[in-house]
Fold:
Amino acid sequence: MNVQVYPTPQATAGAAAEAFVGAARQAVSERGAFHVALSGGSTPKLMYAALRALDVSWVQVHIYFSDERTVGPDDEQSNYHTARVGLLDFVPIPASQIHRLEGERDPAEAASDYAALLPARLDLVLLGMGDDGHTASLFPGTAGLNLGGRVIANEVPQQHTWRLSFTFDEINAARARWLLVTGAVKAPVLAQLWRGEGGYPVRQVTDPVWFLDAAAAQDLPAS
Ligand SMILES: O=C(O)[C@H](O)[C@@H](O)[C@H](O)[C@H](O)COP(=O)(O)O
Structure:
């Protein structure tokens, strides 16, 4: 397992941002572009802030989203909105290279259209993890956990809503997967994951690189 633990959320985000620069440089060097899917939630905000100050060849970066809430792009709940106000408004990435999941549309139609615009293979999928062990919008007990294809509409009864999400097939087809997880609230789930317990959705992500802060990693066995 590739597990990197840093003392604080800021240090964890900074390390992930530096790794993002390296991954982008390698993808551009090898294939002329960097196709990366951002995750949602709040954890990425610190990484976005760190990325704004780093040297990335943004004109060769294509941004996607691993999941999205069924809201419009200006809604503060939107993962696109979080990325836009935290990063995309501050870097010279062509608007045509920001590929938004259209949460305001019919979920099934939006999912189908999004799958059609994805590259054959993403270079990187950035993911977070909820304190219930979900990742992207693949929540415990939802149909999406077992759906194939690339992008789905997933009903999330525990949140009384639908979400748009990559499937695990899509996530695991990418060249790389990073899980950025910080905060003590995530520690119990991580400890169970490490013990092979809990049956959490995130365990279906293959060969991730874990970027953890000390609080999230506090219950893990000393490596
Ligand atoms: O849309 C979302 O909510 C995310 O894609 C989700 O999978 C997120 O990564 C986790 O819920 C962690 O969220 P936090 O970073 O806010 O803890």
